């Protein structure tokens, strides 16, 4: 891992995007099971 150009962009900045993807998968499953779930809104 070379931190030459990503010195101002720590790895944790990518966490929100990963969380969004995980939530999308979870919400997708919840919508299939319960369409009236919060994720459906």
TrEMBL record:
- Top-level taxon: Eukaryota
- What protein name is recorded for this chain? Nonsense-mediated mRNA decay protein, putative
What is the protein's species of origin?
A: Entamoeba histolytica KU27
Classification lineage:
Eukaryota, Amoebozoa, Evosea, Archamoebae, Mastigamoebida
């Amino acid at each position: 891992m070379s931190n030459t150009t990503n010195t101002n962009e720590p790895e944790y900045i990518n966490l929100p995007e990963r969380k969004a993807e995980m939530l999308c998968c979870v919400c997708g499953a919840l919508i299939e099971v319960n369409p009236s779930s919060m994720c459906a809104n």
